[in-house]
Design brief:
CATH class of one domain: Alpha Beta
Number of strands: 14
Pfam family, one: DENN
Low-confidence stretches: 1-18, 20-24, 103-108, 382-392
Family: Belongs to the DENND6 family.
GO molecular function: guanyl-nucleotide exchange factor activity
Number of helices: 19
Radius of gyration: 27 Å
CATH architecture of one domain: 2-Layer Sandwich
Keywords: Guanine-nucleotide releasing factor
CATH topology of one domain: Beta-Lactamase
Organism: Pan troglodytes (Chimpanzee)
Strand order of the largest sheet: 10-11-9-12-14-13
Length: about 575
C-alpha cells in the first residue's frame, strides 16, 4: 500500500507551547476534539536547540497539551542532534526510533486496531515506540555566542512514513528556521485539516501552498511514489555484494551494529535493512540513530547477557569498543554517487576490529547458508551500452525496484513453504459441527515441516542453492519465527471460530432446542452473544448475512424461554 486517504472532523485552533508537563500521556480525544486530525498523523512537533549552559534543550512541544516524560524529552533532545563525530554542517535529515516510557499510550487513537488490520505490515502504527523525523541545521552565525546556529525540527509520530515526513520537513523546516513559531503554528493547523490515513487510497495533502501527493494520478507540485519506501539501491550501494548475508542476518534477528559517518546514513541504512523482510513483519527492535546518552544505552551495551535482538545505528566510533562482543558490525563510509558502483565493503572477521579507526567492512564470523546470487549484481551494475561506448545506468528508482523485487521474492520463497505447512494444520471444514467445540489446530512440528521441504520447499520458486534446511533450523530459534507463528495461529483460530459460527447459523436451531434444558439454552445464548460481539468488532472474518442470522437465532432462542429468564437475558 503506497497511498492513503480518509476523512476526519474539523478542529478548533490551539497555540504553541513550551516543553512543560512531565507526566506521561494525554487525555483521550473524541473525533470532534481539538487536534483529532493532527493526532491521526503526528503525536507532536518538537523544536530542539543548543543552549550553552544546558546543551541540547527542548525549546517547544506542539500541541502544548501533549505531555512527554522527562526520559522521553531527554531522548528526543540527544537523538535530534548529530553527535560531535559527525561534523554535520548545513542541513541534515535523518530519523530515529525510541521507546515510549509509559508503554502503549495514545488512547485517542481508538481506531488503531481497525487501521492496522487493513494496513500492510510496513505501514502499521507502532504501539509502544515513537519515530522521530529530524531536520537539523548547523550554520555559522556571528550573532550567536557560540558562533553557530544549531536547531532541529522534529516530527514525532507512530507511523513509519519516512519518505512522507522527510518530504514534509524539507518544505517546512527551511521556512520555520527563517520565520520560527508563526510558521509552525500555521503548518500544524494545516495538518489538522488533513484526512485521516486509510490504506489503499490516494493521498492529497495540502501544506504551505503545496499539495503533497502519493500516487501520480493528478498534477501536483510534490509527488511521492510511496509514503515509506526508501531508495534501496542508494542505501545498499556499498554492500550489494553482501546482500544475501545481510538478508539472512535480518531474517534470523541477529544483533547488528551499523556504524556510519552521519545520522542520515545511519538511519537510512537501518531502515533499509529492516525493510528487507517484507512482507514478513520485522519483529525485532531497531534504532535508526542511537547515542551514548540514550536512556537504553546500558541495556543495549551490557556484557552480562547476550546482545539483544536489535539493529542499532550509530555514528560514534566509541561503540566499536563498547560493543566489541556483538557478533555482527557493519561499518559504512561516506556515500559516493559517482561512477557505477562504489567500492564494496569487505567481509572481515570480528577479530580484525580496531577501536576508533576501523575501516569500512562487515565484521562477522557468520557464513551465509545460501549461495550468493551472482546474477543480481550484474542486473544492478551496468546498464546497456550506448553508441560510442558510453555506459548509461538505469535510474536509481528502477534499480531500487529491481532490488526490492529480488528481496521480496527471496522472502516469499522462504515463507511460502511455512505458510503451506501451517495451512495443513487447520482442521478440515467438514469436521466443524455446530453443537460441539471446534477441533484444535494441530501443533507445529519442526521435523514434519523439514521433511515436507523435499517436495514442497523453496527450491520450487527460488533458484538459489545452499543449506535451506540449516537456515530454517536457525530461523525456528529467531524472534521472527515466533512472531510469524503467533500471528498465523491467531488468524487461524479466529477463522476456526468464524467457521463454527457459520455452522451454527446454518443449522436448524429449533430442532436442536427440542430436547435441551434451560441451562443449555441459556448457555447457547451467552456463547452466541460473545461470538457476535467479537464478529461485530471485526475480529472474526464473517459475512454480514451470518451476523444477521446469528442475531435472529439469539432472538428465537430467548423467545422460547420462560418470561423470567427472558427478563434476565433482555433487561428493559
Amino acid at each position: 500500500m503506497d497511498a492513503l486517504l480518509g476523512t476526519g472532523p474539523r478542529r478548533a485552533r490551539g497555540c504553541l507551547g513550551a516543553a512543560g508537563p512531565t507526566s506521561s500521556g494525554r487525555a483521550a480525544r473524541t473525533p470532534a476534539a481539538p487536534w483529532a486530525r493532527f493526532s491521526a498523523w503526528l503525536e507532536c512537533v518538537c523544536v530542539v536547540t543548543f543552549d550553552l549552559e544546558l546543551g541540547q534543550a527542548l525549546e517547544l512541544v506542539y500541541p502544548n497539551d501533549f505531555r512527554l516524560t522527562d526520559k522521553e524529552k531527554s531522548s528526543i533532545c540527544y537523538l535530534s542532534f548529530p553527535d560531535s563525530h559527525s561534523g554535520c554542517l548545513g542541513d541534515t535529515q535523518f530519523s530515529f526510533r525510541m521507546r515510549q516510557c509509559g508503554g502503549q499510550r495514545s488512547p485517542w487513537h481508538a481506531d488503531d486496531r481497525h487501521y492496522n488490520s487493513r494496513a500492510p505490515v510496513a505501514l502499521q502504527r507502532e504501539p509502544a515506540h515513537y519515530f522521530g523525523y529530524v531536520y537539523f541545521r548547523q550554520v555559522k552565525d556571528s550573532s550567536v555566542k557560540r558562533g553557530y546556529f544549531q536547531k532541529s525540527l522534529v516530527l514525532v509520530s507512530r507511523l513509519p512514513f519516512v519518505r512522507l515526513f522527510q518530504a514534509l520537513l524539507s518544505l517546512i523546516a527551511p521556512e520555520y528556521f527563517d520565520k520560527l513559531a508563526p510558521c509552525l503554528e500555521a503548518v500544524c493547523s494545516e495538518i489538522d485539516q488533513w484526512p485521516a490515513p486509510a490504506p489503499g487510497q490516494t493521498l492529497n495533502l495540502p501544506v504551505m501552498g503545496v499539495v503533497v501527493q502519493v500516487r501520480n494520478l493528478l498534477p501536483a507540485p510534490v509527488v511521492l511514489a510511496s509514503v515509506h519506501e526508501l531508495d534501496l539501491f542508494r542505501c545498499f550501494r556499498p554492500v550489494l555484494t553482501h546482500m544475501q548475508t545481510l538478508w539472512e542476518l535480518m531474517l534470523l534477528g541477529e544483533p547488528l551494529l551499523v556504524l556510519a559517518p552521519s545520522p542520515d546514513v545511519s538511519s537510512e541504512m537501518v531502515l533499509a535493512l529492516t525493510s528487507c523482510l517484507q512482507p514478513l513483519r520485522f519483529c525485532c527492535d531497531f534504532r535508526p540513530y542511537f547515542t551514548i546518552h540514550d536512556s537504553e544505552f546500558k541495556e543495549f551495551t551490557t556484557r552480562t547477557q547476550a546482545p539483544p535482538n536489535v539493529v542499532l545505528g550509530v555514528t560514534n566510533p566509541f561503540f566499536i569498543k563498547t560493543l566489541q562482543h556483538w557478533p555482527h558490525i557493519l561499518r559504512v563510509g561516506e556515500p559516493k554517487m559517482s561512477g557505477d558502483l562504489p567500492k564494496q565493503v569487505k567481509l572481515k572477521k570480528p577479530s580484525r576490529l580496531k577501536t576508533l579507526d576501523t575501516k569500512p567492512g562487515l565484521y562477522t564470523a557468520y557464513t551465509a547458508h545460501l549461495h550468493r546470487d551472482k546474477a543480481l549484481l550484474k542486473r544492478l551494475g551496468w546498464g546497456r551500452r550506448e553508441p560510442g561506448g558510453v555506459q548509461k545506468k538505469r535510474p536509481s528508482d528502477v534499480q531500487s525496484a529491481l532490488l526490492r523485487r529480488h528481496l521480496l521474492e527471496l522472502t516469499q520463497s522462504f515463507i511460502i513453504p511455512l505458510e503451506h505447512y501451517m495451512a495443513s494444520l487447520m482442521p478440515l471444514q467438514k469436521s466443524i459441527t455446530p453443537w460441539k467445540t471446534p477441533p484444535q489446530i494441530q501443533p507445529f512440528s519442526q521435523d514434519d515441516f523439514l521433511r515436507s521441504l523435499e517436495h514442497a520447499g523453496p527450491q520450487l520458486t527460488c533458484i538459489l542453492k545452499g543449506d535451506w534446511l540449516g537456515l530454517y533450523r536457525r530461523f525456528f530459534k529467531s524472534p521472527h519465527f515466533d512472531g510469524w507463528y503467533r500471528q498465523r495461529h491467531k488468524e487461524m483460530a479466529l477463522k476456526l471460530e468464524a467457521l463454527h459460527l457459520e455452522a451454527i447459523c446454518e443449522a436448524n436451531i429449533e430442532t436442536w432446542m427440542k430436547d435441551k434444558s434451560e441451562v443449555e439454552v441459556v448457555d447457547l445464548v451467552l456463547k452466541l452473544r460473545e461470538k457476535l460481539v467479537r464478529a461485530q468488532g471485526h475480529q472474526l472474518p464473517v459475512k454480514e448475512a451470518t451476523l444477521q442470522r446469528a442475531q435472529l437465532y439469539i432472538e428465537t432462542v430467548i423467545g422460547s424461554l420462560p418470561k423470567d429468564l427472558q427478563a434476565v437475558l433482555c433487561p428493559p
